[in-house]
Each structure stands twice: as C-alpha cells, then as structure tokens.
Amino acid sequence: MKKKQFKMTRRQLLKAGMIGGAGLMLPWKFKLPRAFAATQGPGLSDPALQPKFANAVPNALDPGFIYDTSKGKIKVAVGQTVQMTGLVAPDGVTPVSTTVWGYGDNKFYTWPGRTFQVRSYEPLEVKWENRLGGLPYLITGKDNTSLGFEDYTGRSVVDTNLHWAYSLHGYTQYSIEKDGVPIVAHVHGGHSDFQFDGNPEFFFSPGFTVRGTQWVDKKFIYDNSQPAGTVWYHDHALGITRLNVYTGMAGFYIIRDDDDTGLFGNHLDLPAFPYEAAFAIQDRMFKDNGEFFYPAFPGDPFYADFITDEGAVLPPEIFPDGGPTGLAEFFGDHMVVNGMIWPKMDVEPRNYRLRFLNGCDSRFLAIQFWEVGPGAEDFSRAEQRDFTVIGSDQGLASSPTTVDTLLIETGSRYDIIFDFKTVAPGNRVIIKNIGGDEPFGGDIPGPQVFGETDRIMAFDVVLPFDTAVDDVSPTGISFGPDVGTPTRTRKVALFEGKDEFGRLQPLLGTAEPATDYNGDPIYWPDDPVYASVGLLSDMPMEGSIAWHSPTTENPALDSTEQWAIWNVTGDAHPVHLHLVHFEIQGRLEIKWDSATGDGEGEFGRVADPTGMPGSPTPNDDGTYLVVQPTVQHNSVAGEESTYGMGFKIMNHTTMGGRLDPRPEYVENAPKDMVTALPGEVTFIKATFDKPGRYVWHCHILSHEDHEMMRVMYVGPGSNQVVNAHPYANPNK
Q1: How big is the CA angle at 304 (ends 22 and 49), to the nearest 5 degrees?
Q2: How many CA atoms lie within 13 A of 648 on its CB side?
Q3: How many Å apart are CA 340 and CA 112, to the nearest integer?
Q4: What ranges make up the beta strands (E) of 120-218?
C-alpha cells in the first residue's frame, strides 16, 4: 500500500503533544515547514533601497588588518566603536553609521575583528579584555521593562528567563547595567586545552569582577597544534552568544604551516595575498538611522510567526507586553561581508583563493557564481560559472572538487579557487545565494522572501593582469581526513520540544540509553527536581536532555568514536563539536520501520512500543516518538529549574540505504561542522585527544542559546567531575 504523504507545520507538531507520555506519530520522511521570515517593517532600513556592489569589500587577509603576534603574546579587547557599513539613509544618498562591538587592540575595534595569523604548533598567549562596562547600548538586560520600538533603537534585549550568564544560581544579583556585559572568546575549530576553549560557562565581566562557573584564567594559551586551516573566533558567553555575535564579536583565525604558507612560491601553488581573500558572510537588520535592529517585542518583524503562533503563552508578569523574548531563529534582510553591505572586489583575470565563513545566526548559504555584464545588479542575461573547492573547516581536502553550487552551514568555512580568466574582461561575477530565507530543510533552492538576500557580493574583472606575478593553479591537494578506526558508536539525537512557556525549544539528547566510559548505564540523578516530572533515578538517561543535566557524552581520552547523529526534527541543524576535527562518513535515511531489524546489529531496533500504556499504534511505517518532560534551567524569579516538553525515540529502527550523492555537499576535508539533515542519521568519526570539559551544540545561535547545547567531557575522570553541576563557585 502506498504510504500517505502529508505535511505538518512545526506549530501543529508542538500542539499535538502533551506532557505525560502522550504519543506522537510522524511520517518517516517528514518536513515541518516554518513560517517565512517576516517582511520589512516600519522604521527599518529597506534593503531594496540600499546600494548594491558600490563599496569595496575589506579583505580580512590584508596585512594591515592582521594582528602582530610575532612576540608570542598579545592583548585583545572587546569595545564599542562606530563603523561605516555602506548603509544610506532613506533619502538614498546620505551615509549613516552603525554602532558595533568589535575586537581590537589599542582602542581600535572593528567588525569583524582583526585577523589572527599564526603558525601551526607555535603557541600564542592571548589576554582577552572586556571593555563593555557602562555600555549597555547594544545589549540591555533590564527585566520586566516595557520598551517600545523607538525606545530600544539599536539595542538587543536579553530575555532574562532563558538560561544565560546572569540567570545562573548564585549569579542573579548581577546585571548588564551594573556589572557589564559578560563575554568569552571561543576559537572555533581550535584544538585547545579545555580551560582555553572559551566554553560558555567560562564568561567574565569587565575587570573580571564576575567570573563564570568554570572560569580558570585571564590568559588563554593556544598551542595551535593542528594543520593549516580557516579557523575563526567569536563570543560564546552563556545564553547570549546570539546577541554578542550580532553586535560584531567575530573574526578570522588563520593557521599556516609548511604546506599552506600564505606566501608566493609555496609548493602547492596556492594563490597568496592579494590573490587570497577571506570573507565573513553575515545577515543583519538595520534601523533607518543605521543602528542594528534585533527583534524582541510584539510588533517586531518575526514576532508573531516565531513566538505567539507557536502556541506560546507568555505570562505578563514575566514578559511585559509580550517581551523581550527569545526567537526560534533569526534571518536578516541585509547581506553583510566583512562588515560591508553587498560589497564588491576588483580583480585581475587570474586564479583567486577565496575563503568563506558563514557567520549568520540561522541562515544556510548555498552559493553560486554568475557572470553578468559590467555594473549589473541582478541576474538577467547571466551565465553560471563553476568553481573548485580545495578545503573546508580544518584545512585542505583530499582532492579538489569542481562544483556549481556549494552549501555552507552556519559556522562552517570553505576554501575555493575561482578562475577569473573564464570571465570576459570588464564583466562582473555575482555570488548568488539560493539557500532561502527560512530554516533549511535540505531543499535547494530555498524560498526567498526578502528579495535582496539572493545576492551576497560581486567581483569586477577590471584590473590589468600583473605579469610580475605568476598565475598559479593549485596542485598536490591531497590532504583530507586522517581519523582512525572508531572503537565504539555513540548514538546522539536532535529534537524539538517546548519550554515551560510553550515556545519552540530545540534540544540535544541520545538515541539510546546513555553509558559511561565503561559502558555502564547513566541514570537520571536522585534529585527531587527530576523526580517531580517523572524522571527517576532508576531510569537510564535517554531522549532529549537539557544542557545542564549530567553529562552523557563522555569519550575516553585518546579514543576514536563514531557518532550517529539522529535528526528527528523538520529542519537541518549545523552540529559543532568543540576540540575535535572529524571525518564525515555519510548519511542514511531513517526508515522508521518497526518490523525490520533483528535487535542485534548496530542499527537494529531496540524497543517495540506496542502495548505500552498510553502509547498509540504506530503508523504503517512504524513512526513513533513519545513526548516526555524535560528538566531545564530557564530561571524565573531565582528558581533553579523548570521543565518543558521534549521527545524520546522509543523505536530505534533499521535505517535504509545510502542516499544518492549530492554535489552541493563537499565534505572531503577535515570538518568541525556538519549538516544533520531532517529524517536522516549523519555519521562522523573523531579522536578525542585532550582531556576536560568541552561542549557540543547546534550552531544556529538562537538554538544554542535556548538549550540545544550539551557538555562533553573527555576523560578519564571521576563521576564527580563528569556529572558536575555548573552552578557552583560563582567567584572562585
């Protein structure tokens, strides 16, 4: 019998579930379409009226934009500055400036921050300084404050009932207005000791007067013990990463080695500056006056679709006038590259090496290169051009791959070669984005709503060829993954539930009963908080698990593991593991067929829900998830724990055949990011070679800040360390 295919919105999904073990049925290959990004509202910059490809893009690899790290140590601060982004006022002529928080030194701050360029295996000591005291202009943490659209111009308002730095037990006496904005820098993709990794619990205020629960030292030592690659740094403070990064706290961290020197004459024939460039792509919204805009209140763009239409009930005593509140995702209507809206770069007719970083909150990019006529701003009379991918997050690939489309998940980096000799002199090449303006579900092209986000930047082939410099085309690109054979498979999972107010809350968890180093089950703690929602100490931990619960991902030191990442949500999620680089092995469809599998093999079913109390009969294809309570830390009025709705996979079933190759996914280089597609299991393998407390999370920053993050402990170590509660010793 042919399976019935139907679609269900995410809000319909969430309304279908109830606390207390009620069952929920989904088709095996389900798609939960999200509301589109909202249209541009009053008082906001209209992207259609902003100039396109009129301003030169800064190159993050320009020698004048690179920190001097020659002494092996450096001070880098976060401070406030004013920056021109190419925006103009509603008159279409007058330039307007934007107040940003950027990284820098000697009171010179920029968005993005200046670039680190270091040598592989040469340590660097960085003292990060927080100079955001008395500057709650871009972020405010005022509780229970009714602010209108005009009153909070340029400010992002912290939703203080989410778990965040100053909502932790022992920290509620602190505030942004009184104690400053908490920050902590994370070198994303860095192979760092845990105390220097910039984990979200390591935050600190100006003057270090408030220090996070896991804070260790003012100085961070990066040993750079990894091959050359495109790493980046950004803020990672607990619960406000999305806001701090939005204000400008991000930049490149480039690692060089004997193969990838960044110099002319390197033995791989890689183009060097000025024929090598690095671009951080981000999306933003702006007010007419040039200031950042981040939705947080009723009447804001996104508000209805992302909050109230999800079925949330926001108590007025906690959310005056309905806000501020966290958003499920954020999509901006202005595309920004290295701090400049829709910029351009003049190039010679030769090979260029282009490094791309997707630094957006929620937006997946699917980029293409299109040749158009001189000065064109759209794709009429355009011709698509191929390009060659030579590397990704953690360095060069196992081989070059020529493509016409490349998917770049949020937080990921790709390294490409584009040959501008293939372009007619004087013509322009526009980077087109076909990723769409809604959460990525695996479909390319995605839906476009805003009208201008289908373009990112342009290259004008107008410079004369410099005959003094050879035009090189890379040779010998044969690096790629080098991960050994795994000794165990760990099944983790991605879920979507509700928090205590009924808002969408993405969650991580397990697709099998969690086990410790020795393979013994990890049980829910003997704690009244867990017991109050039916999670008892004799129950193995399984299903969706909040960020602060006991650690279930605890690889043994120097072990190699395969992770099977089950995505039972309707969206793709970019999964990031701190510390490690990994090899992406492939993806399988989840068939959800309870009749298959012998219960013994790696992918066999482990439970049959038939006859369980309160359980419905599965679909014909065996689809079965069960709703369960989820203990979480969304502090309200000093309360330590609350709970919402999560999911548990009761039917771990055999997965189907391998999917057809998808040319837009180029994953033959070491990665620290992977796209987990909906209705699929994604396989990666990694070696965990440094001990300590790290995290893994979804890199949609709005998801990360609202529970889609878990501690990962690399041991061996005592249970006391592994299961340490993060709310102790606020001022150790």
Answers
A1: 145
A2: 24
A3: 10
A4: 124-130, 139-140, 156-157, 185-188
The 3-state secondary structure of 243-289, one letter per residue: HHHHCCCEEEEEEECCCCCCCCCCCCCCCCCCCEEEEEEEEEEEECC
The Cα 571–Cα 677 span in angstroms is 7
Tell me the C-alpha distance between 595 and 651, whole Å: 10
Domains 10-33+482-722 and 55-269+279-301 share a fold: yes
- The string of pLDDT tens digits covering residues 349-387 is 999 999 999 999 999 999 999 999 999 999 999 999 999
Longest Cα–Cα distance of the chain, Å, equals 78
Q: Which residues pair with 574 in a beta bridge?
A: 675
What is the full DSSP assignment across 115-133? EEEEETT--EEEEEEE--T
Report helix, strand or coil for 420.
helix
Asked if 299 and 38 touch (Cβ cutoff 8 Å), the reply is no
Q: Are strands 395-403 and 455-461 parallel, antiparallel or unpaired?
A: unpaired
Name the nearest CA neighbour of 316 among 120, 87, 176, 501: 501
Tens of pLDDT, residue by residue over 142-183, are 654 455 555 555 578 888 888 899 988 889 899 998 999 999
Domain ranges in the chain are: 10-33+482-722, 55-269+279-301
Q: Residue 383 in contact with residue 371, Cβ under 8 Å?
A: yes
DSSP state of 134: T
Torsion angles phi and psi, residue 637, rounded to 5? 50, 40
- Class of domain 10-33+482-722 (CATH, top level): mainly beta
Total residues belonging to the chain? 732
Containing 507, the helix (H) or strand (E) segment is: strand 504-510
Give how far Cα 693 sits from Cα of 542, 557, 690, 731, 732, Å.
21, 12, 10, 19, 17
Q: Quick check: 187 and 222 in contact, CB under 8 A?
A: yes
Cα dihedral: 92, 96, 102, 108 (round 10): 130
What is the second-level CATH architecture of the domain 55-269+279-301? Sandwich (2.60)
pTM above 0.85, yes or no: yes
The full DSSP string for 587-640 is: EEEE---TT---SSSTT------TT-TTPPPPPTT---EEEEEEEE---STT-S
Q: Cα(712)–Cα(728) distance, rounded to whole angstroms?
A: 18
**Average pLDDT estimate for 453-457:** 97
Please say whether the beta carbons of 409 and 434 come within 8 A: no
Residues 6+ away with beta carbon under 8 Å from 510: 491, 492, 493, 541, 542, 543, 545, 552
